[in-house]
Design goal:
alpha+beta
Length: 130
Amino acid sequence: MQKKVLLGGIIGIVIAAGVGVYHYVNYKAGALIAEQIQVINESYAVMATEGLMPGVALSYKRISANYWRNDYRIYDLAVNVAGLGVLLDVAAIQVKGFKPGTLADQGEVSIDGVKLAQGMQLLLPPRLGG
């Protein structure tokens, strides 16, 4: 009886450790994406102060990462331009099949729910601006 309890405890610990590693790696992958967005925003800010481009900043509400399935998602991405506000909202961007740190020869990117600000819609041809 004690061997069964000990074996059950060991199996439980191994499963808990595996689940912990799974979630930790996915958390770190999401944090890395968030860090890259921050680097992009800092780069845009430097270029704006040098007069090379208008002040642009990316913001988002949530990042979901599954490192094991190579599936990364950014939810509610907004492109903000200084003095103009949000010009573009994207409900979700999903990147699948890419290995971080390598050149990809396959994979897919899907973008859902793109919404231009009212002022930007005026700049589009009538058939696209609707």
